[in-house]
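Quarterly update from the structural biology core.
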Amino acid sequence: MSPARQAVRICVAIAALFVAQAFASDGLPRPAEDYFGEFAYCALILSRNRHREALITVGPTQCRLPLSPCSTFKIPNALIGLQTGVVTGPDDLKRWDGTTHRREAQNRNHTLQSAISASIPWYFQSLARDVGEERMAAWLKRLDYGNQDISAGIDRFWLGSSLKINANQQMELIKNLWHRRLPFDPAHQQALAKMLVLDSSLDGVLHGKTGSCTGTQDPATPDHGWFIGWVDWNSPAAGEPDTSFFVINTTGPNAWGSQAKRITLEILQDMQQGAKPTHLTE
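Predicted structure, tokenized:
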């Protein structure tokens, strides 16, 4: 080997060492406790492009824990509504019935797009009732979505109740949505992906949905929050997609989806500032 080639290999090895040292032993940029504090947690982050794939799995036991999907169920709920024709697209309007809700955002008319963005329960409860139990059960079976249990009622089974799903299953849902591989019209999947776009300071396009459930809905269900989705990083080379899929949940007193989202964004921002991890699960 020539001295020049040997020098290049040494430089590459040194660079790889610095990248590896930039991440904690569990694959996160900083120790998990820095992000999650006192919450119990699961974090799944899958980063991939054409040349590499790296999976971070932190809290593998909790990642297998079945939990209510809470408002993350708006993703399959919307797709089922679109596929069955119960809703026609992002602009499909449902009128507020005048019931006063604690969150002011709920006290007005909503479209499918605004109901996803503002996470409006009554809109999706109405949608689910229009789909009906028979069709809803059939679609959850076709999706192989969690435990597929809608026994708590057509307009509440996903709200801290009978329907349960774990983080690994949520990751499969998100990946298949990105690839348009779910058993729905690809146009509906593309439309929903656009509806999931969120503002962020990341160098890329963030898609995601939060979910929150409290123990007051079901004493057997702990307070927990979700944030699931993906970020399509801005790639310096055209035609070189670089995507990070994520599923993060937290459990414990006052665990909320907004906190899961904040934690996720902190992790993604730290990943953005350094190199993306190159090793696999904990």
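Residues 3-24, 277-282 have pLDDT under 50 and may be disordered.
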